Amino acid sequence: MTRRSTLLALGGAITTALLTGGRPAAAQTAAPEPATLLSNVRIFDGLNDQLRPGHLLILGDKIAEVSEGQIQPPEGAQVIDGAGRVLMPGLTDAHWHMVFAPNSMANMVAADTGLMYAYAVAEAERTLMRGFTTIRDTGGPTFGLKQAIDQGGIPGPRVYPSGALISQTAGHGDFTAAYENTATLGGARSRYEDIGAFLIANGPAEVAAAVRQQFRRGASQVKISLGGGVISDSDPIDTLQYTPEEIRAAVQAATDWGTYVCAHVYTVDGIRRAIEGGVRSIEHGHIADEDTVRLMAERDVWLSIQPFEEGDNPLTPEQIAKAEPTSHWDRVVEWARLHGTRVAFGTDMLFQPNGTYKQSELLTRFARVFGNAGALRIATSGNCELFALSGRRNPYGEARLGVLERGAWADMLLVEGDPTQDINLLTDPDRNLAVIIKGGQVHKNLLG
């Protein structure tokens, strides 16, 4: 052996010793993944209406095995005896606002942003404790919250962020005072633009740039406003917003990033313009007619609708009057069920520091049209099919969400009682959610 080869061999041996603590390399074994076995449960897998008895093993952050027969847990595994309780996927909300929901209007308009985010952080944990393990945030400054949750810094649901709602001047996202110029016309930006909740863009080039900016910041999809809204004062519900060219610019920019555009819009004309422009998800759609809902089915466009009823959001008398045409959600959803239009469940709760507990109550309303199991399918595997349209921008594309099957993310709830028979059980999560697991981590366990 030459002097050079001897030195190389000696260096390799020293390196091996340092890395292995002096033990032979073959003796080094990776630390076992955390394991949890849920035994003796009745499984609602998010896909089928019928419950089936069985057992489920979690290794790390994913489901390793689902079996009707007994599963031998690995050494050191946490074993939770379900004693016949129902195990189901975690709930999801396709139209949630992590920052808007828990903050009052006063906070959003004028409070220090630290206070605003303090409320949002607290609400993130409450959302998870209601059993919602994944949400799609459809407008708001949530990128930092998502990162903190994903990094394990704070508890909360998985987040599909849209970033700022992109709006035209005098659109749903324009909160500039009527007598002031918008920033694009030489005026000052509104508070909502300053905090990254909304972004004003006009013309195809500006719209495309605004879309790309959201992706640069971490959006999984983007949201544009194509019609009037309830909380915005300067745009009547019936207005059409963004030209076909501007819509196509947004869609092309999103397509280039491997994902999709969703659109705030209520009316027939607005929905049809969205469909023709390539929008994949209609957010709201409450004033659609049956022909338009049928067209959505034909074009494979999602109806992401919220079961609004009076009193759900704190509105002024003027806003209540403005919202009246949006109260017919059940009629539109019935058309969707009839024609096979894909439906997503969301809540769009706003400005409710003490009212976000109603998130679960809104889900129960879907059961009026789809039945208990049907509503649960939509709020689990169904919503997650919509989320998966984010394609290459899917932050959780490594595994499936919303189902209980081998290889899926380990997000699940163990329920006291049977929600496929009584969905109202979910409106009392403190009492009826015995176990909450997200990514294999047990966040709540009332069974010891």
**Any guess at the CATH architecture of the largest domain?**
Alpha-Beta Barrel
Beta-strand portion reads 15-25%
* CATH class category label of the largest domain: Alpha Beta
The major beta sheet can be summarized as: 8 strands, mixed
Q: Based on helices, strands and strand pairing, what is the structural class? A: alpha/beta
Total helices: the number is 13
Radius of gyration from CA coordinates: 24 Å
Spans of 5+ residues with little confidence (pLDDT < 50)?
1-27
CATH topology of the largest domain: TIM Barrel
Number of domains: 2
Q: Kindly report how far apart the N and C termini lie.
A: 63 Å
Keywords: Hydrolase
Organism: Paracoccus salipaludis
Protein name: Amidohydrolase
Pfam families: Amidohydro_1
Question: How would you describe this structure to a colleague?
Answer:
With 448 residues, the chain is of the alpha/beta class. It folds into 2 domains: 35-90 and 404-445, Urease, subunit C, domain 1, CATH 2.30.40.10; 91-393, TIM Barrel (Alpha-Beta Barrel), CATH 3.20.20.140. The chain contains 13 helices and 18 strands. The protein has helices at 3-20, 105-110, 113-129, 143-150, 191-194, 203-217, 244-256, 268-277, 290-298, 317-323, 329-339, 358-387, 429-432, and strands spanning 35-43, 52-59, 62-67, 78-81, 86-89, 91-96, 132-137, 158-161, 165-167, 198-200, 222-225, 261-267, 281-287, 302-305, 343-345, 412-415, 433-438, 441-445. The strands form 4 sheets. Strands 1, 2, 3, 4, 5, 16, 17 and 18 form an 8-stranded mixed β-sheet that branches. It has a 5-stranded parallel β-sheet with strand order 11-12-13-14-15. Helix 9 (290-298) packs across helix 11. It is globular, with a radius of gyration of 24 Å. GO terms for molecular function: hydrolase activity, acting on carbon-nitrogen (but not peptide) bonds. It holds the Pfam family Amidohydro_1. This is Amidohydrolase.
